[in-house]
Amino acid sequence: MGALCYAELGTMIMKSGGEYPYLMEGFGPVLAYLYSWTTIIVLKPSSFAIIALSCAEYASTPFYPGCTPPQVVTKCLAAACILIITAVNCLSVKLAYRVQNFFTTAKLLIIVIIVVSGIILLAQGNTQNLRDPFAGATTSFGAIGLAFYNGLWAYDGWNQLNFITEELKNPYRNLPLAIIIGIPLVTVCYILVNIAYFSVLTPIEFLQSPAVAVTFGDRVLYPLSWIVPLFVVFSTFGAANGSCFTAGRLTYVAGREGHMAKIMSYISVKRYTPSPALIFNGFLSIIYIMPADINTLINYFSFAQWVFYGLTCLALIVMRFTRKDLQRPVKVPIVIPVLVVIVSCYLVLAPIIDKPEWEYLYCTVFIVGGLLLYVPFIYYKFNWTQRIMRPLTMHLQLLLEVVPPEKTE
């Protein structure tokens, strides 16, 4: 339902940047800035870092059979993954989407292999792990919300095309078509893969395994079990490439609108890529690799993500009344965005009400704290800030060989 709302928004407001232009049109610059501040500084780079760490874990696990790979190895591999992907995206847009196409194909191939193996095992009667799937589960008001955070984070990506709307060919057709095909395909594939895993692994083994697909491959596909970690590395590498690609576009658009440093909106003279924005995202992602437990960051900032998802769908409802002049090639029934807003409110409030923790307050303070930069740098545009930024921008422009983008309406 959220993806359908984004299909309407994407074909109504033809601007890149994901939720950013929709919040700008619906509620004005302050809320759009807070979204860009939170997403550019925390959500996008931390997501990139987590996917890179997953890629590194699957790449290193086969070399440490029976134990967890050392953290230093995993983190160094994750940093190398981030550097390679950032370099690819800085070099060429065509190279980036060719890499994406190749690794997406590899992802679908390994999914087919795992699912077919699982179907064979289920047909042989290996169904004991599926007979009582909710044994020992808690059903508290907040626990369900936290479970949704983790599940929906795995499925996150249904809004990614909205980050590159300006670069799509025939977006009026291709944006909604990609959503209609992609969301059901991903949902079916992910569910079937997890059912296949439970045909071999118990819930305890599932939780204890550092790399579930590797454990599955060792038990089912031996002596060809090496295929699984190889293709999962391909899969996670492709996912990280997609995350980097879209994050760079948001940073670029925010810079173009004056909500980030102007250098972030500059384009490479030779490569025609937003290299400053991509490099900035890669730099932050490497920083987020360093903490011991980055998953905690996702739990506490996922509520922020759903605040913005809910506000974006609320903006769609608001613009039905305030921007009736806008063309809507795709128009969803208004009940759909209303339901998404209600679900977003539940996902935001349920964990806080059920188990309030200081971390939620810290995240809120961080989001609102963005106003401390907004007021002097963006709203008032004090002269002293421009005196500092002008020479810095000039030197970075010369170093990176970038220029400002063409003016757009």
Overview of this structure, please?
The protein is mostly helical. The chain has a single domain (1-130, 147-403), classed as Amino acid/polyamine transporter I, CATH 1.20.1740. The model has no long low-confidence stretch (mean pLDDT 87). The protein has a two-stranded antiparallel ribbon. It is globular, with a radius of gyration of 22 Å. It is built from 16 helices and two strands. It has helices spanning 2-12, 19-27, 29-60, 71-91, 93-123, 141-155, 171-198, 203-208, 212-220, 227-256, 275-289, 295-322, 335-354, 358-369, 371-379, 383-400; strands at 267-268, 402-403. α2 runs antiparallel to α3 (29-60) and α12 packs across α14. It is 72% helix and 1% strand. It holds the Pfam family AA_permease_2. InterPro entries: AA/rel_permease1, AminoAcid_Transporter. This is b(0,+)-type amino acid transporter 1. Belongs to the amino acid-polyamine-organocation (APC) superfamily.
Helix content, binned percent: over 70%
Approximate strand percentage: under 5%
- CATH fold-level assignment: Amino acid/polyamine transporter I
Number of domains: 1
Task: Spell out the helices and strands N to C.
Answer: HHHHHHHHHHEHHHHHHE
Oligomer: single chain
Number of strands: 2
Derived from helix and strand composition plus strand pairing, the structural class reads mainly alpha
Strand order, sheet with most strands: 1-2
What is the level-2 CATH architecture name?
Answer: Up-down Bundle
Termini, distance in Å?
A: 30 Å
What Rg is obtained from the alpha carbons, in whole angstroms? 22 Å
CATH class: Mainly Alpha
